[in-house]
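Standup notes, structure subgroup. Blocker cleared on the S-adenosylmethionine input:
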Amino acid sequence: MYSKKCSRLFFRLLTESTFRFTLIRNVSSSSKSVRSLCSWTVCRNYRQRNQLSNGLPRLNLRTVSQTTLDPAEVRKFQAMASKWWDLQGEFAALHSMNDLRVPFIRDNLLNVHGVQQLGKPLAELRILDVGCGGGLLSEPLGRLGADVLGIDPVEDSVRTAEMHSSYDPNLRERVCYQACTLEELAEEEAEGFHAVIASEVVEHLADLDAFASCCRQVLKPGGSLFITTINKTNLSYTLGIVAAEQLLRIVPSGTHDWEKFISPEDLERLLESSGFYVEAIRGMMYNPLTGVWSWQKSTAINYALHAIKRKEEPQPEQTWAESENLDKPGQAPSYS
Ligand SMILES: C[S@@+](CC[C@H](N)C(=O)[O-])C[C@H]1O[C@@H](n2cnc3c(N)ncnc32)[C@H](O)[C@@H]1O
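Run returned:
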């Protein structure tokens, strides 16, 4: 009964909503084995140094406003830490999202860096997967040849990720996990990554400015930042919280807080002021009846974003148009 009602609600909302059109902008270090990845100073003894007895990370000497960590969010994911690889469970929609986000990341990275090795298109690229959870996205990126470090503040999720990737001998060579926050990593690892990924993570953070500034710190100049998240619209509230959490129970009730959602325009502004320029934004939508994600012209519900770290330091007084010419000689960005 619920599912019929919900299907009707779902499709009515879709057809009635006025979709805003997506902005789509026209937009190497030597290969390291996982042994060298895991021997990075930053990885060493992280768990021992940063964990309290309650399993939550100890915060460094930052004020609360400078941490990305929201303890309530950490508790939510702690409760689900053993469920990451249940294909029919709470994270089913994230498994299915790989069909879109993995090619999105791969193709945008190939545009920036070119193919390094046939069959392993992301070989020689170091990727940081922030908020990796159980490694649902880290694993396929490792299979594409990237050296991936997945970090998450929930230690039990990191254990789940480690356990799961250990079953695949190819991943043991490529993927490494650590229980820590981005800000902790940023204090020790400067400009080390070709790409940072935060997929379905920014809506769970306490401080987005701190997040963007840490991303900039850990990225190489010209490095890529990939974000997927939920827009802050009435439609995303109705579908993402009322339908997905309360009616269809695709994800547990209370997983999302609408106040923390961010529109693509606000996210772009924030990233620009943190020293990035946004290369692409694409709308995405999940169909709960088929369990399949698709690209959409509209960003009204979910979207994926690709931003690039500017080579020069952010200049607060610089306008967008001025700074655009510094980084991208030639044409101004085009929009479609
Ligand atoms: C919806 S899950 C997404 C997991 C993974 N990125 C994926 O898409 O499969 C959100 C993840 O963000 C993590 N998280 C929450 N607060 C975080 C923070 N301050 N820094 C990094 N990760 C955080 C949670 O523990 C959880 O694993």
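Discussed briefly. Confidence is low (pLDDT under 50) at residues 1-64, 319-336.
Next: hand off to the docking folks.
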